[in-house]
Amino acid sequence: MSELIDALNQLQKEKNIEKEVIMQAIEDSLVAACNRDFGKNAIVKVNMDRETGDISVFVEKTVVEEVEDPATEISLEDAKMRDFHYDLGDVVNIEVTPKNFGRIAAQHARSVIVQKIKEEERRVLFEHFSHKEKDIVTGVVQRYNGKNICISLDDKTDAVLTEKEQVKGEVFHPTDRIKLYIIEVKDTNKGPKILVSRTHPELVKRLFEKEVAEVYDGTVEIKSIAREAGSRTKIAVASNDPNVDPVGACVGINGARVNAIVNDLKGEKIDIITWSDDPAVLIENALSPSNVVSVDVDTEEKSARVVVPDYQLSLAIGKEGQNARLAAKLTGYKIDIKSESQAAELQEELDFDDSFDDMDDSYDEYADEAADGAENYDGADDYADDNYDADSDEYADDGYDEADSDEYGDEDYDGTAADNESEEKKFEE
Questions:
Q1: Strand 191-197 to strand 177-188: parallel, antiparallel, or no bridges (unpaired)?
Q2: Which residue ranges form the domains of the chain, and what is each CATH number?
Q3: pLDDT tens sequence across 189-218
Q4: Separation between Cα atoms, residue 20 and residue 17, nearest integer Å
Q5: Residue 8: how many CB atoms within 10 A of its CB?
Q6: CB 303 within 8 A of CB 280
Q7: In terms of Cα–Cα distance, which of 43, 51, 48 is closest to 72?
Q8: Using one digit for the tens of pLDDT, what is the confidence trace for 335-361?
Q9: DSSP designation for 76
Q10: Is there a cis peptide before residue 279, judged by omega within 30 degrees of 0?
Q11: Residue 38: half-sphere exposure toward Cβ, Cα within 13 Å
Q12: CB atoms < 10 A from the CB of 322, how many?
């Protein structure tokens, strides 16, 4: 069995599979095989010499005065024949190694080794790529499988780039080397299942970490990122060193750094802006390359109203609203963009509405006062009690004569005629 030990030593060197793990697995496999021969009640032990590889099989039996189960018990007399030191209750290990056990052991050892090699290879691969989870790797395009792309990450590990994680419009050919972001690594019976992506925003972030030393060491920090894969990405960066320009560090000399990343992303445009803790400033920066006249921010509602020059309204919004949409994702604010003329018209409407509201308020105030006056007035009671007395002669003596009433009693009352008649009487007098 020395050949077995040599094979196990070789496996440990080449496959990084511990020899002890395989030897223990061989012992367990042989125990299971022996249990079928000696009965389920038998306590079987298999010992494998760690130096020579020789294998021995033992059955444990308990020393008793009267044997009831020969598979697990031995009489005191028989035990003392083996060793006179044995007493009742002791455990005796009896060797029962079959004559042909070497061949049986070799067969089990072979199957166990093959199985352990597969398990260890899956374990090593899983541990290797699990450490790369949320990171980028370089893969080689193998072939198209329907709409999915088979990617080789190394000689033994493949990944599948699903249609969902592909950038629309990207076309690859076999042997093309591409950068991929590992979303998740799952351990399965068939080996590690690696989920990769070309559309994930973190792919851009990791590319900057690889390309820009200041980002990698933490001098420049990527605060936020918004991406529409294949078209445009906006990132907001800040510097932890006042002597380092975060945007300049990411762009590089003559755009060398950012251009390298653009090439990895097959021409995807990248806007790099300066981060600010002031939401208004951040929103203004995020709407680059357009100029901004003013920004009105509502921090509670997480919304902002932005005014831009008339001639830059389309630039601020972007093609199909992309620039405004990415700015909103980057800042976390709902952004309403207006041109200066639109803002002026809106302000005029607001001013008119305010004036109208003021008039309404004045009217309401007057109405309230009138209502208060009506509440205070009780004409029937006031005048009935204080001023007017039906039986009083006060008014009868003051010029009104019943005899004179006949003069007007049969005529319809007309104010104008009465006035004229009065004037004529005065003239006659």
A1: antiparallel
A2: 2-121 (3.30.1480.10), 132-197 (2.40.50.140), 202-275 (3.30.300.20), 278-391 (3.30.300.20)
A3: 777 888 899 999 999 999 999 999 999 999
A4: 9
A5: 22
A6: no
A7: 43
A8: 999 988 888 888 776 654 554 444 444
A9: H
A10: no
A11: 25
A12: 15
